[in-house]
Amino acid sequence: MASVPAFLDVRGISKSFPGVVALDQVSLLVDRGEIHALIGENGAGKSTLMKVLDGIYTPNDGEILLDGRPVRIPDPFVALELGISMVHQEPKLCSPLSISENVFMGRLPLAAWGRVDWAEADRRTAELLERVGLDLDPRTPVEALSIAQRQLIQLAKALAFKARLIILDEPTASLTPVEVDRLFTIVRGLQADGVSFLYISHHLDEIFRIASRVTVLKDGRKVTTLDVASTSKDALIGLMVGRDLGERFPAKGRAPGKPVLEAREISGHGFRDASLTLRAGEILGLSGLVGAGRTELARALFGATAISAGRILIDGGPVVLRSPADAIRKGVSYIAEDRRDGLFMPLSVRENIAFAAPEKHSRFGVLNSRKQAEQARAFIGRLNVRTPHAEQPVAVLSGGNQQKCILARWLLKGVRVLILDEPTRGIDVGAKREIYALVDQLAREGIAVLLISSELPEILGMADRVLVMSDGRITGEVEGDRATEESLLALALPVESIKQELHA
Amino acid sequence: MTDTAITEGAASPKTANSGYNRALGLLVRYSNVLALVLLLVVASLLSPYFLSSRNILNVLRGATMIGLVSIGMTYVILNRGIDLSAGSIVGISAALTAGFAHYGVGAAVLVGVAAGVAVGIVNGLLITRLRLQPFIATLSTMIFVRGLVYIYTEGSNVIVRDASAAFTFLGSGFIGPVPAPVVLFAIVWLIAALTLHYTVFGRAVYAVGANEEAARLSGIAVERNKVLVYTVSGLLAGLAGVVLASRLTVGEPNAGTLYELDAIAATLIGGTTFDGGVGGVGGTVLGVLIMAFLSNVLNLLNVSPYSQMLLKGVIIVLAVVMSEWRKRR
Question: What DSSP letter does each residue of A136-170 carry, written as one string?
Fold first, then answer.
């Protein structure tokens, strides 16, 4: 190693959560004034690594050195003190307060007797705004600003704390090309002043424009670090994907029947002009990057959010879904991305299974508890829910068993369409396999399954057909046997990257 | 992404409980029952008059009004809401019941209860249609309805002249040896408890309180459930107002003031938490009894009402701490 220590030296960082190893012995070097890119699929461990550097997570193992000295980062404030600042994708600012107050939050300049020196705060804020290229009054409330401007306010805030390492998390996700150019100019300016950047992005072409080195993460492990000049976009995609699928998915060969649920050019918050046909007895995969609009589309198909244009058809006939209750009456069900959105934590396993289907065990609004318990126990047995008894609060079950309770809820209801949004997120391998087998069995029994997943192997292993979304649109459909991680990722990456790839 | 994950810990509720731990668990779990028993024992030792049936029945009769309001409040808090207007509803109901007494008992009772139901529905609609937070919605109706009470009573007592035996029965009558309001309260408690446990509506009260989003995604009619819950609270507060007017044969403009806070306190002492979905009316009745007998014994011992308030404040804190412990075990 060089005699001058690297500015940031991350050594063998590991972090695990119940059921998941998010980071496994990851090491990373960033030099002073370097723009270092960090790439990987959804869930590869990028966010976890950032949160470790920002003091939000404490690693289980490994050490972090700044200027060759080991440091501990127990919370984000210490990170700021050390000169590490994070610019979040969704700017974390107090929107009713002024720019000055946000920039100097936690350390407003003081005058005599502890009075806040507003003149000084505004003056220094004005200087910082000039450095990030914003011509704004420091007194403006942040809520009046655009997303791009808010991102630059975060950058100004980082500078106010004399940041030496700035972590940019998908900074261009909601910016226009002109705004991106402006951001890059500012970043390069700061780089010339000796500020280092960790740059996280799905836009590979941006990495080639701005970064000098790139580190690839996969499944919580570091794959490699490369000089950007000596690699190519294809090589990077290859490094991000590709792994052993193993034997954990059930065999395919299902026989799709008639269309059950159809969408004809529907638009809504987060998606546009989406069309799809979901048939009885098939598993249709819906792939794409986080934020591509998959969950929004799924929730609209379930009546949880309204559509602004287009039509939804069930069994070939147009329907209007005003609420989830409407969709459920038509036989459509949805299992939410965040398991907590589907569970009644303090209530029993029995009730968690029973809540959607009161008609199965009540008459004139009066419950037949014995019947309800019998039905719940039947599904606890069939789905192999590991719980001592049906009266256990669902909160104490493991994630996999909680997920099975939600599945049981819809099976008891007797639905015909199952929309699964990241059904195995944060679930251990054993429970995953059980859920795969169950979903396969349900499809074979004629249930139509729409499977949303950020895990490409899961989509490849389960789906008969795959739709890919990017930027709110469905960008392609691939037959299950022909789909590869590369082909899905190419469709999922933001459009301008693909265009450039085609021209390259 | 989690292919490499180590198998997560299986669902294992704490199985290895030492005898000590189990005893502590039971203690925390039944702390409010224990508190009531302890209170009764200590009180009977301190004051010989305390255990007389006359005193006990008097305390129970006095607790009826807060008790009715508390049962409604329990529905609302289980649903993860709050009803600050309950005291004002007691006021409007008492005033109207007294004011309509000369049209006959049936009309008087009906008008009093209907007023409570109407305010409850308005609360529910403010919360579901205008999407006001329950605190804000019911704070507004609390003030508005109290204003109506003052306008209707013109700020002075509405006195029922020559009240019939039928009119005073609900507040002051007896069924056998038991005061009529105590019987009414027992019946309401029974119906409220059965409804919560054995009806689709009752379980939806818990479901919406435990997780509104999950309830919506399960197809539960969340908005209708909320409106019904505030209607129940309004109905029971209205009934409390009827009992109050019947007992005093007067509709006072300030009747029911601060009842909502006593009811919230009784609900909390009973183990229902503000997080929603946890608790029930059984606990609330314990809470009502603890508060009522505590005041009674302190009165018998000549403790000033001001000092009593200090103790009540401390008890609420202890009760909520106990609820938190219960949740963590």
Answer: --TTSBGGGS-HHHHHHHHHHHHHHTT-SEEEEES
**Any idea which architecture A8-240 has in CATH?**
3-Layer(aba) Sandwich (3.40)
Q: Would you state the pLDDT for residue A365?
A: 92
* Torsion angle of C-alpha atoms B147, B153, B154, B160, degrees rounded to 10: -170
Rounded-to-integer distance, Cα B176 and Cα B174, Å: 6
Please report residues of A whose CB lies closer than 8 A to that of B8.
18-20, 398-400, 427-428, 431
Residue whose tokens read 């396993």 = A349
Q: How far does the CA of residue A19 sit from the closest CA of chain B (Å)?
A: 4
Triad A379, A438, A413: Cα angle to 5°: 45
| Model-wide pTM > 0.95 | no
Sheet (strand A8-17) strand order:
A20-30, A8-17, A61-66, A69-71
Owner of token pair 């030792």: B45
Residue A501 pLDDT: 45
Which tens digits make up the pLDDT trace of A299-350?
999 999 999 999 999 999 999 999 999 999 999 999 998 888 999 999 999 9
Cα A315 to Cα A93, A216, A267: the distances in Å are 47, 45, 21
Q: Are A41 and B1 inside 8 Å of each other by CB? A: yes
Residue A172 binned pLDDT confidence (cut-offs 50, 70, 90): confident
Q: Say if residue B13 is exposed, middle or buried (CB neighbours under 10 Å; 0-12, 13-18, 19+).
A: exposed
CB contact under 8 A, A427 and B201: no
Question: Could you tell me the residue ranges of all domains in chain A?
Answer: 8-240, 259-331+415-503, 344-414
Task: Tell if the CB–CB gap between A325 and B211 is shorter than 8 Å.
Answer: no
Architecture, CATH, for domain A259-331+415-503: 3-Layer(aba) Sandwich (3.40)
Indicate the average pLDDT of chain B. Answer: 90
Instruction: State whether residue A351 sits within 8 Å of chain B by CB.
Output: yes
Strand partners, A225: A215
Exposed/middle/buried for residue A216 (C-beta within 10 Å: 0-12, 13-18, 19+): buried
Say whether A386 and B10 touch across the interface (CB within 8 A).
yes
| CA-closest candidate to residue B292, choices B173, B184, B182 | B182
Distance from CA of B160 to the nearest CA of A (A): 41
Residues of B in contact with A346 (CB under 8 A): 210, 275, 277-278, 327
**CA-based nearest distance A472→chain B, Å:** 23
For domain B30-328, is the CATH number 1.10.3470?
yes
Please compute, for residue B101, the number of CA atoms within 13 A of its CA located in the half-sphere on the CB side.
Answer: 26
Domains A8-240 and A259-331+415-503 share a fold: yes
